[in-house]
Amino acid sequence: xxxxxxxxFRSTQRxxxxxxxxxxxxxxxxxxxxxxxxxxxxxxxxxxxxxxxATQGEKKFVTISGEDGSYAFPDLPNGSWHITxxxxxxxxxxxxxxxxxxxxxxxxxxxxxxxxxxLAQTRVQKxxxxxxxxxxxxxxxxxxxxAAAEPQKAPEETNQQxxxxxxxxxxxxxxxxSQFTIAPAFGNTRSGxxxxxxxxxxxxxxxxxFDAQPYSFSAANLPKASYTDLIGVATFGGPIKIPHFLPRxxxxxxxxxxxxxxxxxxxxxxxxxxxxxxxxxxxxxxxxTTGLPYAGNVPVSSQAQALLNLYPLPNITNGPYNYELQxxxxxxxxxxxxxxxxxFGQRDQVYGQFAFQxxxxxxxxxxxxxxxxxxxxxxxxxxxxxxFNHHIFSNLGFNFSRLRTLVTPFFDNRQNISASAGITxxxxxxxxxxxxxxxxxxxIAGLSDANSAFNRNRTDGVSASVAWYHDKHNITVGGDxxxxxxxxxxxxxxxxxxxxTGTATAGPAGTGGDPFADFLVGVPDGSSxxxxxxxxxxxxxxxDAYATDDWRLRPELTINAGLRWExxxxxxxxxxxxxxxxxxxxxxxxxPVLATSPVGTVTGxxxxxxxxxxxxxxxxxxxxxxxRPIPGSTLVIRAGYGVYDDTSVYQATASYMGxxxxxxNYKSFTVQNSTTCSLTLANGFNCPSASIFGVDPNxxxxxxxxxxxxxxxxxxxxxxxTVTYLGVKGTRGVQxxxxxTYPLGATNPCSTCTSGxxxxxxxxxxxxxxxxxxxxxxxxxxxxxxxxxxxxxxxxDDSVLGGQGPIAAGATSQNLATxxxxxxxxxxNGERSLSNFDQRNLLTAQAQYTSGMGLGGGSLMTGWxxxxxxxxxxxxxxxxxxxxxxxxxxxxxxxxxxxxGTIRPNRTSASIYAAPAGKYLNVAAYxxxxxxxWGNAGxxxxxxxxxxxFNASLAxxxxxxxxxxxxxxxxxxxxxxxxxxxxxxNITNSSEFGAPASPGAPRSLQLTxxxxx
Length: 1013
Known about the structure:
four-stranded mixed sheet; mainly beta; 22-stranded antiparallel beta barrel; globular
């Protein structure tokens, strides 16, 4: 029965390529997630069954290495992750990895422990986290990783591997007589039971009484919210046996998790003061109609008054903000995972899984608007594995997944704010009720709410592969096909957006004026909107084929070479509801082109129904080697090179192409206030419709080349040192810009040219290089530790790689630190700068001690002292790094577009960081751009707040008897309760410039108890 379980764990990895059960995170962050993969080896031989864990704060994803030792996390959110490799009888491997797009795979070389440590290790049981966590969206693995990553594994799967889980080409015998044998469950030790079953019951508890107070910008003694977080866990697995009917049934596993979670935080904002609400300003305010200054208070329009009533009154007086709201959000989640496998004879095995997850959450913004989100994911897969002989294996699989997302805004079917305020031209459908979005350059909180959405995404996939193990070669050939459906019932910008920069109420030569005064008199500087038919049905087929050879050329040299072809077709819409732009050279002529009539009137070109020509040249060679140059030495050299395509670029593009004019019954535009289209709060959404987005029809899929060189050697004192160099070169990156725009104060050079749209092309370029050194102490006498320092630099001129924010004209972002549209559309090379994720220095260190291990650690301690003091595991982890780059923004409408947030200021000679009290950036370091010229401040030229975290845990397993074990664990995040900010306010013409924003979570304690039987 143990062997059946092992076959199940090994075989399941190969075909779980398209699992989208937990895509609730992956879908929301497709642009900010990347694949991470690698291989686990021992003496250059693959190690199946090794547990690979990726941890980032409270996030935790787990998978198991496949038959060839490979593993993959298909969509791991970008950022710093702590990777651990664990395998019984081997020392644990650990390393911090900065996950970025096209992160190259890592090879992990296991080291066997001495016999005394192996025996000690078998007595140490480590507690693990929840059964099923939100996992990244699954994608098919790349060549070199034919075993696909599983969704988050259950504790039983990660903590109780079968006793023969380690078997590398017969190198170790894990039979019952082996010294490495570990009883995986009570079934083989409890009399009267013929089956082998595992189970557990767990409870994870967190209460606000044990958590620190969230950071408050007001430093006031505000009451702390009361909450209790509960996570219930239950798992059970074993063979299904029905006497006289099914004496040898399949093996099953089922896991269920019930979660009730809360998150408390203090959210600051700058809201209108009582004087501003009454129309009193220190600057002179000019009448937009007469051009004369107001003699008294600024009048308030009826539309502005209706929207002003939604703003709260100030409640604090100190600090950069004047309002603070305590927000308590809730998440309810139910998740289940079942697995089944059955062997037929000696050559065939059928296995599969079914899982679902339902997540209901709510969130409140600073205005008190409560929005709810309901996500339901289903996934299932069926696989067949056949062994022709001892050298040839085949696998065939089918998988299906469906993800439904329902977003209900606060005003949905509740109150039509726009209609009651007298605002016309935006959507009046009940799901879109609510206020328009308001954006102020002065720093006043922008009024906004979520958009209603009911989206259903589905993936059907088949995969096949054949593995041939012959002599020194392990050759795998395979391919996959996926049909993806993205069914949206949502609007891009149905309530519209108004932008206020103080232009309307400014006097001669731009004197005076105030953005909030513009709002009171009802004259915005810019307006944008996009809505129409809410339903869109996108379709995309994805193909790939690969061949790899793991060639053990010599005992000291292994070469892994492969070639992969990958093709993701540009997305089409089921009813051809797509619109693009047909443009001439230099954008002097622009006209829309529709999928229903795909012939451009400007160029006369014929387009496919996707309006983007396909890119079939997705050829990706990969090669890697592991070399031990000195026989008998522990020095190991590893090197690799690979090419990786990014076929996920089409989804966001299709979303914008599917909801814009001139599609039937669609309204879209992004305009600046002018005599051609005079904007007011009452009539700001009644300008003529126009296309707001275009993409190069010859758009190419971007790719990254990666190369890596690493040297590893053992040192005295159970130490091991690894030095690694990594390089990444990105080509054909996405760039977004605003054609036919011009600097502030300049004259329109082409008044007859079409403008007011965002255009996308694939001419971006990026490069990242990093060097790291890691020093690790192997587990000895119960103590293990590691430290790693990484120095890196990443530069790019991409809009998605470096920004990952909104890319369409009219799209809004509350955090302009990741502006993604180029400032000067004629000088895209001027955008080349540090990448948004560039972190120059990163240091991570962790230590773990388990009491009662080794002679010096008290392994022979007996009696009550031994029972109390032995088998406690204490772990701590410290991460410290420099800040991420931010871009200084001079918030103004880009002339000719109606888009704000792309213009940068001029740099002065003052120091950026000589900030006044309460601020972290010096506003005197920047000035308004010179009229007629673009700002010369560099993109991502500000260094954001540094990063620091310290987490700790205490765990022990109590062996109650032969049948039951009780795991107890206490986890502490941000143990020192050190406040770390996520960013600085980067709008130079805002009164909040340089103020801290997005404080990190406070200290939190979590108790985990689990009964295993």
